[in-house]
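Researcher: Go.
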Amino acid sequence: MQFSLKVPLVPSQTPLDYDSKVLLLGSCFSENIGSKFTYFKFQTTINPFGIIFNAVSLELLIKRCLDKDYFTEQDVFFHQDLWHCFEVHSDLSHSDQNKLLTVLNNKQDELNQKIKELTHVFITFGTSWVYRHRETQQIVANCHKVPQKVFEKELLSVDQNRVSIQNLMSFFYELNPKLQLVFTISPVRHIKDGFFENQVSKGHLFAALHQICSEIDTRVNYFPSYEIVQDELRDYRFFEKDMLHPNALAIDYIWEQLTSIYCTESTHSIMKEIASIQKALAHRSFNPNTASHQKFLFALQQKIKIIQNKVTHIQF
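Model: Structure:
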């Protein structure tokens, strides 16, 4: 007996393995899936400039990395005891202006180099609603609690989203023409914009990605994370207390669906071994000095050595 619609999934023609190098960008959903990649010891980079929800801001950041257009004093501002940059998340804000600029520019250099070595990029878009700074007319990635009167809220059209995503693709391919791009839309609903407005926002992203993914390019894929949550996991038991964010159980399920089409059997086999080690490492003994616990630790070290012989870059 089946109690939900199953979202059809097509196996990837460019699967992931432990030689793959993965970058995840975009909304908080990228962080959720990125943490899974990290847990299973894939070579992973997650949102180096923090959570970014809209396509235009991601486009601007990757363009900076491509051009090595470094951040300067004109790109940062002081507010509520910290220096901020409208192009990045507030996690990077700092009390020292020079240190903030150093961090931003180092991250830019690192990302430029990493893109050249990547095999897969997963990009999750969260919304089409953006805030434009009235004085500079710049669309910001984060408002940093600056008063709302400083900004003008607007909805990116289907065409604006499509152009930004296509530009984003071209910047990536200029640095690395072989990498695989995987787009997805965040299942998190932005109801602060309004229930109807959230649907319109997501709809513009869907339409833009549909136009892009309809073009024949084997380097571009779409993963239906939004559809899986809305159709297969539509019960509120799969959400956090805010009823908006998928909970750990939902993230686990989406991870299983993603790896079912992006990971080979041999990769799954290594993932199982790593999961066993991770669970053992999380174990805390009440009596660590006992012979049985020492035997447990020795067996664990042997498991780690076996994995590291198979995949040399893995560290625990």
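Model: Residues 264-316 form one domain.
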